[in-house]
Amino acid sequence: MRIGIIGAGKVGTTMGKYVICHGGSVSGFYSRTSDSAKEAAEFSGTGYFDNMDSLIDASDTLFVATSDEAVPAVWDCIAKKNVKGKVVCHFSGSLSSDVFSNWGETGALVCSLHPIYAFSNKFNSYHNLTEAMFAVEGCEGALMHMQSLFALLPNRVITIDTSQKAKYHAALCAASNQVIGLIYMAVEMLKETGITEEMAYMLLGPLVQNNVKSVFEEKDGHATGCAGALTGPVERNDCGTVCKHLASLAGSRWDIPYRSMGGVLTELAGKKNPSRNYRQMQGLWQQESAEELP
Fold first, then answer.
1. 206 burial level (CB within 10 Å; 0-12, 13-18, 19+)
2. Three-class SS of residue 73?
C-alpha cells in the first residue's frame, strides 16, 4: 500500500506522520494550499505534489483529508482521473462512503475511516493517536485492502454499517459535545441560585469526573456501564424530589431539556432495577406544568 494524501490540515498531516511512524508507506501530499502541503511533506518525510494527477499516479490508496464540505468536490475531481483499482478513503465522522457517488463506474474502491480522536495540533496529535479507536465502513474490496494498514497500526478497528454512519456520529456527539452542553446547563442553573461561575465549576468537577470514571471503570473485564453507575433521585424512584425539581424549573429554558433527560434516566433506572415500578416517575416527565404535578 502506498498512500497519497489530499489535504494537509490537522487530520491529513497527523495521519501521514502516524502511518510513517508505524512502518507504512506514504507517497506524499497534495493540497490547494501549496505551502501547507510542502510543510506536511517535510514534517512527515514524504513527498510534495503540485498537482493531483501526479499524486494519484504515485499512489494506490488516496486519503481525502479535507473538510466534510469539500469531500464531494474533491471526489468529483478524482472521479475524472484514472483511478481503476485504487482505494479512495475519507476521514469524516458524519459522511459515509456513499458520498463517493457512482464510484463503481470509476473502477475505484471506496471507504471511510474515522479516528475517534480530537486532532488538536497537526504536529503533535500523532503522539497520542495510538489511544484512539477507528471506525471503518465501505465496499468489501476497500475494506480488504485496508487490512494491510490496520495490521501495522496498534489501534482497534471496528466496522460499522454504511447506512448507520449518521447515527453513529450522532452518538459520538451525544457523548462528547452534548455532555458539555449538560454541564453548561448545570453551571447556568447554579449561577441562577447565586453561586459564582468559578465556584460552580469547582463544585461540579469532582461530581462529573467521578461519575464518568464509574461508568467506564472495569469490573471482571467489563465496563460498569451507565446502569451500574446510575445514582440519584430517579434511580431511587424518589418522585417527591423530582416534583420539587420540576416545580423549580417550570417555565424556564431548562424545563424541556431536564424533562427529556429525566425520561432517559428513568428508562436506564428500570434496566438497573427491573423489579422496581417506575411508572409514576415516567409520568412526571410528561406533565406540562407545575400545576399538574401531584
1. exposed
2. helix
**Alpha helices, DSSP H, located in 25-176:** 34-44, 52-57, 71-79, 103-106, 140-150, 165-175
* pLDDT score, position 130: 95
The average pLDDT across 65-90 equals 97
Question: Beta strand 109-115 with 47-48: parallel, antiparallel or unpaired?
Answer: unpaired
pLDDT in tens, 34-59: 999 999 999 999 999 999 999 999 99
Closest C-alpha to 280, from 239, 240, 235, 231: 239
C-alpha cell read off for 230: 446510575
* Helices and strands per DSSP (H, E), number in the chain: 13, 10
DSSP element (H, E) containing 47:
strand 47-48
| Angle of CA points 221, 207, 245, to nearest 5° | 120
- Provide mean pLDDT across the span 96-109: 97
Q: What is the pTM of this model?
A: 0.88
Whole-angstrom Cα distance, residue 162 to residue 159? 9
